[in-house]
């Protein structure tokens, strides 16, 4: 019997549908591939010593109006409530880090075509409450009570 040769690049087919829905074979969506490309660019920019806060503000400014308004407000809240967190881009999203490790991030609704934006916290945030606690919060709008809750979460996250 003859040996089978592995398929070359020209024989490979894209598994993504381009619609934001994962393919049946489990490949990455177009949005996920874009986020990975953004992350690679962020790492190159950081290696060059890029101004990360300027990059975060530019990313927020480029968002659609609803996400931009929420991103600007969250940026102001985070900078005031947790001044020790440094802004940085993380997979194309505004994020805030302590010691180089992301503590929280903002994902606009348009990022992955969801119906709400997300404020998420990484495992670096100390939000532990017993055996189970939330690490991401859906945001449709920000009221004064929501802003107060976010400030409280940020203060707990960085202690």
What's the structural blueprint in terms of helices and strands?
Blueprint: H1 30-47, H2 52-61, H3 65-81, E1 86-90, E2 93-98, E3 101-107, E4 117-121, E5 136-139, H4 144-157
Helix pairs in contact: 3-4
Biased composition (Polar residues): 13-22
Region (Disordered): 1-35
Organism: Rhodanobacter denitrificans
What would your notes on this structure say?
This protein is of the alpha+beta class and 159 residues long. Helices cover 37% and strands 17% of the residues. It has one domain (28-157): Aspartate Aminotransferase, domain 1 (Alpha-Beta Complex). It has helices spanning 30-47, 52-61, 65-81, 144-157; strands at residues 86-90, 93-98, 101-107, 117-121, 136-139. The chain has a five-stranded antiparallel β-sheet. A hairpin with a 2-residue loop joins strand 2 (93-98) and strand 3 (101-107). The termini are far apart. Mean pLDDT is 86; it is low at 8-19.
Biggest sheet strand order reads 1-2-3-4-5
Order of helices and strands: HHHEEEEEH
Tally of helical runs: 4
Rg, alpha carbons: 19 Å
Total tally of structural domains = 1
What form results from the Cα inertia axes?
globular
Query: Which range best describes the helical content: under 10%, 10-25%, 25-40%, 40-55%, 55-70% or over 70%?
Result: 25-40%
How would you classify the helix and strand content by structural class? alpha+beta
Residue runs with pLDDT of under 50 for 5 or more positions: 8-19
- Beta-strand portion reads 15-25%
What's the mean pLDDT score? 86
Number of strands: 5
Q: How far do the termini sit from each other?
A: 65 Å
CATH topology: Aspartate Aminotransferase, domain 1
CATH class value? Alpha Beta
Oligomer: single chain
Instruction: Give the biggest sheet.
Output: 5 strands, antiparallel
Q: Give the CATH architecture.
A: Alpha-Beta Complex
Organism: Rhodanobacter denitrificans
Protein name: YdhG-like domain-containing protein
Domain YdhG-like: 68-158
Region (Disordered): 1-35
